Structures are given as structure tokens and as C-alpha cells.
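Entry:
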Amino acid sequence: MHHISITPFSANGITYTPSAKPIVVICMDGSADEYLDTTLAHDRMPNLKKMILQGYRGMVRGALPSFTNVNNASIVTGVSPAVHGICGNFFYDAEKDEEVMMNASAYLRAETLLAAAADAGRKVAVITAKEKLRDILSHQLTGIAFSAEKAAQVNLETHGIENVETLTRQKTPAIYSADASLFVLKAGVSLLKQGVADFLYLSLTDYMQHTYAPDTEESLAFYEAQDAEFGKMLQLGAIIGATADHGMNAKVKADGSPNVLFIETMLTEKFGKGFRVICPITDPYVKHHGALGSYVVVHMDDISRIDEVKNWLTLQPGITEVYDKKTGCHILEQPADRSGDLFVLSGRDVVVGKTAAHHDLNALDGTLRSHGGRYEEMVPMVISHPLNTIYKLKAQGDPRNFDIFDFTVNGTQ
């Protein structure tokens, strides 16, 4: 085993004091607690069971909206969206009058603990399934950062590593597959085994959770395959922390058809023109969710009517929360300058969208399963090693999924 730095480092007001063990934090994208419960009940995850028995398992609160970019940014900074500025996969840039993807590090307003760890001497590697996350996660990082999606295009200058397919003995996977996530885990094991990295962030993709319910054989086999890689990491002496960016729920009616409220259409029919609805879940992966989630923001031309519109929306079936900008930014921990005039959240089995014309439901690979709202906010957290006294007490409070590095690094000594 190569020398592992134990030099403390700090990011965003949090000091991390690592031990001389490899650290691996995994974002199990879309892993609602039901997925772990079901797979454990079928005895398909023996290594996860071992981690839970010797370490810790609990529920933690994620960041809202419960989307991928938002929560991954929170996990690698240790702070909320109000601080780091990433408030969706997609937003309306009022200054430029453009609706744009929020997948570039230029939008990040906080340092990452990954960059700080690398500066302190840790060999840091970021491996993400989705290319859309790589730039944000690798912000100012001197280390390795690549995606499974673009593994064949990795080069030393851009990604801090080369010949990834040869190194990992894996071909670049299809992004709409179980292999996209398994590639990330297997690549992490390879980098650990070869001493190339000792501080890893592995971010998976939720295609499988969007496509399969927890009790399907496809889902059980997927989690069983993940578990095999957890076991290899444990054998290599790693301390593993695992959480999720969000949960996942079926968003369908009793007959199985998508349960969608098209908010811009509803508002236009009721109040006339002057509304722009933004779906922050929007990203290039249309087979996942058709850009439909349980959270949207509304921009209004005439904000003098905001109370009238807010009160009407609040009364609509399927809508669970509506906030104006000031209240919503406080409760939902959002950056005010990147938010709309109203925040709209929907029920467990409901998604909210723009208009029917803006969402291609035919692109889905199966039924509509999605996330984004309050009902996908609570996610599991598993730590492979016992928590110390201080962090046992913290776990009894209101831990967040973006405390995962703090718990894994500081809570296990």
C-alpha cells in the first residue's frame, strides 16, 4: 500500500481529519431506502449487511429539489444549494434571458472538499456515470475525474488519467443500462487496487431505479452486482460511506398511466399569459423521466398577482407545497438570484411539468418513475465502520446526505 496522507484539510467551514485508510464515498443515485430494504430481505447484499452490522445505517435528509446535480454538488461541498448555487439540472438565467443546463463548474459558488483533499496530499479520484456531472465535481481538482459515459474519450490532460478502458478492463457502457453504474464501481476498485487513488467519490446513475421497482429481479440483480464491488473495496481496507442524491417513486394513476399536472397550461388557462414554468429536472437523459419531476419553479410577468396565483395553486389536487420566492428560498435553501417567483412541489405519485408539448412521454423506457419533491428527500446513509461518540449523537439529530464525507472521514476514527 502506498503512503496515504493524513494531513487535515478544510472546505466551506468544515475541517476533515482523515485516517491513513482509503476513503470511498458512493452516491447511489436514486436509491430510495426501499431498494436496500428489499435487496437485503432477499439476501442479495451480504457486504452491505456486513457494513450495516459493523457500522451505521440511518435515514438522512437530502437537498431540495431532490435532483441529481443539486445533491451531488451538495455532497462534494458539504453545504446546501443556497450556498453552492446549483439549484437544478436546468434553470432560467434571467440576466441572459436563456433557459440553460446548469452542468458547468462556472455555476458553482463554493469550493469542493475533493479539491481541498487533493491539495492536502490525498490521491483523489472522481468517477461519475453521467458526463453532465464531471465538470462540477472536478472543480479546481488536481486529480482524476472522468465519467463512465465518456470513458473511451478520457485523456491525461483533461481527466488526469488515460487508457481507462485498459486500466479497468471494461468497455465504455451504454448510459441507459445497469452497466453505467457498475462501471463506476469497478473502476473505483481498479484505482484503489493499483494505488492510483485513495480518496474517491463514485457517483452512479438512476436509470435502473427510473425503470424498475425495488422488488423486480432486474433491480435485485443490479444491487447484488453493486454489493460485490463493495466487498472488494472492503477487502482493500477502505472506509465506505454510501448515500443517495434522492429517492424514487412511481408517478402514475391507478391505471398505470403517467400522473402529470402541466402547470404552465393550468396557469395560462386560469389567469392568461405571462407565465414561464421551468422544470429543473430537465437534462439530456430523456429515457429516465421525460423531464418530469415533482418540483417546478414559476416565473411571472406580473408579480402583483403572486398571492392570488399561489393561493389558487395551493388548492389544486396533487399540489402539496407552493411558496413565494422569499419563503421558498428560506425553506427550500435556494439561491434567490437563480430561483423563480413561485416554487411548486407535488405529491408522492404526481409529477409537474410545463405543457404537454414540452414532454415526450414516448421516450420513457417503461412506466413513469421520478423524483424531485418532498417525497424523495429522505435517503439512506450507510457507513462501513463504527461511528465515534460525537457522530453517534449527530446521527440522532438532523443529518443531511451532504454530511456523508464528514461522517465517513471524521466520524469513524
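The radius of gyration is 21 Å.
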